[in-house]
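User: Working on a comparison across species. This one is Apoptotic protease-activating factor 1 from Oncorhynchus kisutch. Can you predict its structure so I can line it up against the others?
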Amino acid sequence: MEEGARSCLLQSRSSLEQDIRASYLMDHMISDGVLTGDEEDRIRSKPTRKEQAAALLELLLRKDNQAYISFYNALVRESYGDLASLLHNSLPLVSPEAEKSFSDGGTRYVQAVLSEGGVPQRPVVFVSRPALVNRVREKLYRLQKEPGWVTVFGMAGSGKSVLAAEAVRDHALITECFPGGVHWLSIGQLDRSDLLVRIQSLCFRLEQQSQEKDPSSSLHRPPGSLEEAKERLRFLMLRRYPRSLLILDDIWDSSVLKAFDIQCRVLLTTRDRSLADCVSGSKSEVAVESGLEEDQALEILALYVNGKPQRLPEQARSIVRECKGSPLVVSLIGALLREFPDRWAYYLHTLQQKKFKRIRKSSSYDYDALDQAMAASIQVLSEEHRELYIDLTVLEKDVKVPAKVLSVLWDLEPEEVEDVLQDFVNKSLLFRDCHHRPYLYYLHDLQLDFLAEMNRSGLESLHTKVVRQYQQRYSQGPPTSGDEECLYWFRFLTYHMAKANLTQELCSLMFSLDWVRTKAQIMGPAHLINDYVEYGAILDKEVRGHFQEFLSLNGHQLEQRPFPDVVQLALSQPDSSEVYRQALLQAQERATRGGLYLDWVNKSSLKSLSRLVVQPHQGSIYSACFSHDGTNIASCGSSKTLRVFKSTSGEKLLEIQAHDDEVLCCAFSPDDHLLATCSSDRKVKVWNVERGTLMRMFEDEHEEQVNHCQFTNIRRRLLLATCSNDKFMNTKLWNINKPSSQNTMFGHLEPVNHCCFSPDDAYLSTSSSDGTLKLWEVSSANEWKSIDVADMFPEQREQTEVMVKCSTWSADGRTIICAARNAVFLWDIETSKKMADCSGHLSWVHGVQFSPDGSLLLSCSDDQTVRVWETKKVHTSSAVCLKRDSDVLFNNGDITVVAADNRNRLQVRNGRTGAVMFQSENQESRIRCTAICSQTSAVPSGTSLATLQGHTRTVLHCQFTPEGHTLITSSEDTTIRVWRWRTGECVVLEGHKEQVRCFSLLTTTPSSETHLLSWSFDGTIKVWDMSSGEPLQDLACHQGAVLACDVSPDGQLFATTSADKTAKVWSSASWECVRLLNGHQDCVRSCRFSWDGRRLATGDDNGEIRLWNVKDGTLLKICSRDNKDAMDSLHGGWVTDLHFSPDNTVLLSTGGYIKWWNVEKGEALQTFYPTGANLKRIHVSPDFSTFVTIDNIGILYILKKVE
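Assistant: Here's the predicted structure for Apoptotic protease-activating factor 1 from Oncorhynchus kisutch:
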């Protein structure tokens, strides 16, 4: 028995044992020949009904597919319909030979009855469709006690007639329901005279058979009219054949059907499901799917060419897919191949080119060629409906449309459209998806191909009609309802414009930032990118590139909710970009109405490395890989899902709930038909990509999580490699057709994170947490070479052990990529020299891979993004990036930025252009803080003016006093030093017990002496006399570390925030706490008074910002509530800095990104998304028009308000 059928029986076992009476079912199974008398006796010997049922099921599990189908049929016959439905979806396929003997019931009686009744014999080439056959039989059993109608309907060539004949080829059905016989009458498209001849013939046949059984009965003269024929037939069916079945094959017209409305039992086949509405009596129907399963269709082709399905050429599958498994097309082509077995490619090409006239056959089907069969259905429509049906030529394959779309196209009321579509559906000219409300409608591929071929010359005008009708209906702007109609227009309007050859209008639409914004908001960015790729040949190449680059690099932002401001995103594009030009115009116009927009003025100094950024999963992404043809990417991660999407646009193609725990890796097979996944649940699974079904599972050999899996590169000898956290047996090779592993590699004593075959499959590389990369011979499983990767990253090794996360080979086998921390490195395997590195991910990189041609590089990360890089453009190892420890001087419109870089050099940059004005020599140790004296006016020369020694540990903060003569520094050594930097004199402020990260100058009145306010991780605030170094106040402020402090503009108050989740406001006069501010759910990291001293803003590590009334301590507003982003924070990370505008109406905050808030409403006015994240600090010009910051990957941002 097939595995699926056995599994279904086991899953349904308890329900079956509870309800069935085995004695009722066994009679049927014995007559089918699947149960013996001895077996029946053993089951009947059980004392209780439930034990008998259990014994029957136990016996059934040891039998074959025939036994399963017999058991299912028995359930149907004994009215266990609900139990039969449990088994229905797992009905197995049966070979034609076995099915033939089985379906005939093992008796000649069935053959005799069907032969007498004129039922056609099975086609020479026949494949069972057991699920459909059993569905028809189930309906026929309902006619056992009373007359009625069973309608079998479907489109042309769907196999209705064969199905009807097969349904009655059953011994039990005939003996129990139709002992009077089964009578077949082929109808087709007839006029009244032809119909009369058919009924006369049937009556004669019935009378003749009756006379043979009863010689005393006499033959009557043939009826002379339809009315007389109807009465004669009524008499024969009710009196002489009272329990017989009349099968009417291929009914087209309701008037024809009325001639058989004589209170008898009728099974009819038709393309029009509504025909039975015109007759009386009980009715039921069975819809015939338009296509066979791929396995069934391949079996038919194999039978025609006397071969085996698995040995058919690749074109066989393509033929089946092209015709969607249509029984008619498969049979027609099979018959042709029997005569010309080497014409697979020719008939596939014929089908693809829609040359239906060439697909002719010689069989008993009514039409000589496929086009005639298709045309016959359309000819029965009224002329008005025929014209409307032809309009459907413009639809795309496999696209379902709501009636509203056709209402626009036909300029009819939706109700009228639904009536027309119902007529098409009834005639099997259109299909309806009833799982959606409102209903969606679609054409079979063959119907669409036929229409396209029939209307080839008018296609352009039909598409033009669609566009014009849309423009007329939506002249004020596109629909934004988000319903199915709206989605259709956003997805396919560009398609219709391209097909209508409306190139100018297509360019105007696709090069509009308004269209991009609206479509991205409703459908996401992937469809937009697809459009630019799809219609690239007819769009302006340069402008298309601008929009495609914008969407590819910002697509992950456009997936966020709330939806970002597209104009602000577009302002980060290069100045030469059409996207930027449109965005700037819109920003300037909106600024006149109070809108806030920021222009990144130094962006020209940055080249984007990424080609595409996608956010396919919620949560970390642990693996991503190209398909071997480069068109698709698969990804997986903490969401436990496997996802496949297009590499050009990120459009989702497949999503599977793959494992019970995090999915750590995914890999395509060489032919892209299979995908392997492995997981923390210790299982390895192999999936069919096209169907999304599980093919194989290995779950016994790995005892810890399986970190990585990969197929060999050559399909000739397909192997799968896996590696895990197991202590010794952590790398294995599998033959996917065998249940256990083929080989195990020994060598790593720490977890193996990654494995990868060399291009020729001769070697396997493994990357381990022990800091090494090992190369193994695949044939022998012996270690060939070991590389100590950790030695190549001395900086990282000083801080922590280097864990080699992954590696991959280039196509020529000369280059390997390695990922460590949040960077991707390339090096030459022969020289072991690092060639280049890529920075862009915000967190640990888990996977890297070259595209098949080596032009692209794929990486995925904990930051929830997949990045595609252009290999030629990645940074070399000499690339310079800035550190976030910076200072900025705003002076009469000039901006000076000072910051350290990743080579321990000090850089001074022009804040208008980002150009380097000065760069120091490399320093021996990392530069941790910088400060600019506000009194300086000279262009920096690089001359060292003083070296001040005294601190014993890292200096964390430095600041000049306003007059510039004094420099104050604080350190990890718990001290603060006040320097007369020109003379080297120093006052040491000692008293803190832990590191002092920052301090502030405190002036209570303009005339009073300036004191120093410092805070520390020891939870205290201290006030110092800077000249003597004596502490004036020592306040134990918080139970946790003090993280921030701010002094009110008038110096009367200061605020502190802490890791204890509180903020406090203190008096500078009494040194007492005047306000305790509770409410934050995480460490309070930042605070800032408004310039009028009336409000205090506080920000925490959950990204939440609170606005407080300083006077009474009441909470005024909470910013960012209910708007968590994908990084699981309200602000993309900690809120690290806050600033009020001079008029106190706007609040600026930094975290994972930069936000501007309306203070009165607590609502976001604007968001700027940097390329990196984790912004430490932002510098603001006095007029609140210019903002300067550096992100965690060293990019400098100089932002200026758009005026």
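For your comparison, note: DSSP finds 33 helices and 60 strands in the chain.

User: Helpful, thanks.
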